[in-house]
């Protein structure tokens, strides 16, 4: 049903926002696009009286209504409304609006089928700031189609069925399934891949616009026995390398660091020879949490910076950040035991430039990162960010050479279908062997 709320007071907004709000109040208006609905919701909030309660109009789909779970919505102070007006100029107002809603105790319901983030399904700003370039404006370029090198077989086969049923019985989640990884069919039906176990539940407190994982402001509490149960199950599988990852859990004081550490400690006690990688959230920049996990006995500390600095706000949840992620990686390297390997990853095809990619690689190397991976961003659903470019395999090869030969990473995994945990054990072992052979050659010389 379309909203019939009056548009009085919206005239203070930019003309485009006012026109959008007026249009939604017109019964004969055509069906609204998601971007128009989004602007309308923003207009309703910005035009609310300082002492009144702002409500999301009924035109917004259920999964996108920030105030749907609360009868009274969100009250905005005059200062907050002024802040939102300013942020609207740069296209960042909606993210701040959602943050205010959460601070006000409004529960933001998870999207249907984990398709959209809690910060909205996509970013399509029509009011751009002075520093906005054409590259900043999202939208699928005309004629852009998925190239043949990205075609993958559908998941299936005896081994795939065995793994899926076994994981279900053990109540274990994998990021392979939750994030709709394109390599799932290869990894789970062969002997070359890595199944990445996701702990701390399957619901994230953040809503990055590239990710298909389920979101909620207050996920269920973690299973207290999960670290022990997970470690025991993995130890019985007979694998030599495991990747543990998790959703963001900003609702937990340490972000889940002790949950990670308990899993690693138990796993190492049961199977000391197993190599363990932890692909972690940023723990909100908590250095104590980073230090605690880095000294838990893991072999690889991984945290993904995801994209270049300029695109951070557009791609990631507002609570994440370029400098914060670099700080996590730097602190893990500085406070972890000697020999701890650090690793990060970025996606290509989101609108980044070559110089931005190179600068990101240099920044990560300066932060002490040993292993760097690059892969093609693939939109998991139509509700997520558009792909701006399909990067060729040849260009990915270039970045591998650049990262290893120019920047100086110990290892770079770069390819259209490379993901941060894809064939992680294979990459790690290859890196160690190469380093050992180089050391032997240097000693012989």
Automatic annotation (TrEMBL):
Pfam families, A to Z: LIAS_N (PF16881), Radical_SAM (PF04055)
Localization per record: Plastid, Chloroplast
E.C. number: 2.8.1.8
Domain of life: Eukaryota
Full protein name: lipoyl synthase
Chain positions covered by the region annotation Disordered: 57-77, 130-151
GO cellular component, one term: mitochondrion
Gene3D superfamilies according to UniProt: Aldolase class I
Keyword Transferase: yes
InterPro entries: Aldolase_TIM (IPR013785), Elp3/MiaA/NifB-like_rSAM (IPR006638), LIAS_N (IPR031691), Lipoyl_synth (IPR003698), Lipoyl_synth_chlpt (IPR027526), rSAM (IPR007197), rSAM_sf (IPR058240)
Radical SAM core domain segment(s): 190-410
UniProt GO MF annotations: 4 iron, 4 sulfur cluster binding; lipoate synthase activity; metal ion binding
Lineage: Eukaryota, Viridiplantae, Chlorophyta, Mamiellophyceae, Mamiellales
Keyword annotations of the record: 4Fe-4S, Chloroplast, Iron, Iron-sulfur, Metal-binding, Plastid, S-adenosyl-L-methionine, Transferase
PANTHER family: LIPOYL SYNTHASE, LIPOYL SYNTHASE, CHLOROPLASTIC
The UniProt record lists the keyword 4Fe-4S: yes
Record's catalysed reaction(s): [[Fe-S] cluster scaffold protein carrying a second [4Fe-4S](2+) cluster] + N(6)-octanoyl-L-lysyl-[protein] + 2 oxidized [2Fe-2S]-[ferredoxin] + 2 S-adenosyl-L-methionine + 4 H(+) = [[Fe-S] cluster scaffold protein] + N(6)-[(R)-dihydrolipoyl]-L-lysyl-[protein] + 4 Fe(3+) + 2 hydrogen sulfide + 2 5'-deoxyadenosine + 2 L-methionine + 2 reduced [2Fe-2S]-[ferredoxin]
């Amino acid at each position: 049903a379309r909203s019939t709320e009056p548009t009085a007071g919206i005239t203070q907004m930019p003309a485009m926002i006012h026109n959008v709000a007026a249009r939604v109040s017109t019964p004969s208006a055509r069906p609204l696009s998601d971007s128009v609905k989004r602007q309308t919701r923003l207009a309703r909030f910005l035009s609310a009286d300082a002492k009144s309660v702002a409500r999301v109009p009924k035109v917004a789909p259920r999964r996108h209504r920030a105030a749907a779970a609360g009868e009274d919505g969100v009250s905005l102070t005059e200062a907050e409304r002024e802040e939102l007006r300013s942020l609207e100029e740069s296209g960042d107002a909606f993210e701040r609006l959602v943050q205010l809603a959460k601070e006000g105790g409004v529960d933001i319901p998870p999207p249907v089928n984990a398709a959209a983030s809690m910060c909205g399904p996509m970013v399509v700003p029509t009011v751009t700031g002075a520093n906005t370039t054409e590259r900043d404006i999202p939208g699928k370029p005309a004629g852009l189609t998925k190239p043949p090198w990205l075609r993958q077989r559908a998941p299936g086969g005896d081994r795939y069925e065995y793994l899926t049923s076994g994981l279900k019985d053990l109540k274990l989640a994998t990021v392979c399934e939750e994030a709709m990884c394109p390599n799932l069919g290869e990894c789970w039906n062969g002997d070359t891949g890595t199944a990445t176990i996701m702990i701390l539940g399957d619901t994230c407190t953040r809503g990055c616009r590239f990710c298909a994982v389920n979101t909620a402001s207050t996920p269920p509490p973690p299973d207290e026995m999960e670290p022990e149960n997970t470690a025991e199950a993995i130890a019985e599988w007979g694998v030599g390398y495991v990747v543990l990852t998790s959703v963001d859990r900003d609702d937990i004081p340490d972000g889940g660091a002790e949950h990670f550490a308990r899993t690693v400690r138990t796993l190492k006690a049961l199977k000391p020879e197993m190599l363990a990688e932890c692909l972690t959230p940023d723990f909100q920049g908590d250095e104590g949490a980073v230090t605690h996990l880095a000294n838990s006995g893991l072999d690889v500390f991984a945290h993904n910076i995801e994209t270049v600095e300029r695109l951070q706000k557009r791609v990631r949840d507002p609570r994440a950040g370029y400098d914060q992620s670099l700080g996590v990686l730097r602190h893990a390297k500085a406070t972890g035991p000697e020999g701890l390997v650090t690793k990060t990853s970025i996606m290509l095809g989101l609108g980044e430039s070559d110089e931005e990619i190179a600068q990101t690689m240099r920044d990560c190397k300066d932060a002490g990162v040993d292993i760097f991976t690059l892969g093609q961003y693939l939109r998991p659903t139509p509700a997520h960010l558009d792909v701006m470019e399909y990067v060729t395999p040849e260009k990915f090869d270039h970045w591998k050479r650049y990262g290893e030969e120019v920047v100086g990473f110990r290892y770079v995994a770069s390819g259209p279908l490379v993901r941060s945990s894809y064939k992680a054990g294979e990459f790690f072992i290859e890196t160690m062997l190469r380093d050992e052979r180089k050391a032997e050659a240097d000693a012989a010389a």
